[in-house]
Design brief:
140 residues, alpha/beta, 5-stranded mixed sheet, 30% helix, rod-shaped, membrane, transmembrane, ExbD, transport
């Protein structure tokens, strides 16, 4: 006698409801997440604690709030890099071993400070110091 073989179906897992739930969760998280961009970041300027270096000979480059430059108290005609390089060369008398102290206003644009640093480098100075303020003591 020949028995008929019964083919058993393998149990199948239906993934359709699982995929539906995953897509719903994805949509939920995309809708509830806020994508806000801040257009202005508040930056706290660094403070330096330590002793100030007293140099006997130095050149002070001042960058004011409007982006203008002054070398040892004498204001430059314009804010161009070439003017600043020429002023540094005249003020130093060709001595590039002098310390250059860069004093920038807290409200000045960063580009003005970078331009001053570029001019100091072009003039051949190797020593640059950036002036900072002393930390304010907080009372408790």
């Amino acid at each position: 006698m020949k028995f008929r073989q019964v083919r058993r179906e393998l149990p199948a897992l239906n993934l359709t409801p699982l995929i539906d739930i995953v897509f719903l969760l994805l949509i939920f998280f995309m809708v509830t997440t806020s994508f806000s961009r801040e257009t202005r970041l508040l930056v706290s300027l660094p403070e330096a604690s330590g002793s100030a270096e007293n140099a006997t000979e130095s050149i002070e480059v001042l960058v004011d709030k409007e982006g203008g430059y002054a070398i040892n108290g004498r204001r430059l005609v314009n804010a161009e890099v070439d003017s600043l390089v020429r002023g540094l060369e005249l003020e130093s008398g060709g001595d590039v071993s002098l310390l250059v102290v860069l004093v920038a206003d807290a409200e000045v644009q960063h580009q003005s400070v970078v331009t001053a640093m570029e001019a100091i480098g072009r003039a051949g100075f190797a020593s640059l110091s950036i002036a900072t303020r002393e930390p304010i003591e907080k009372t408790q």
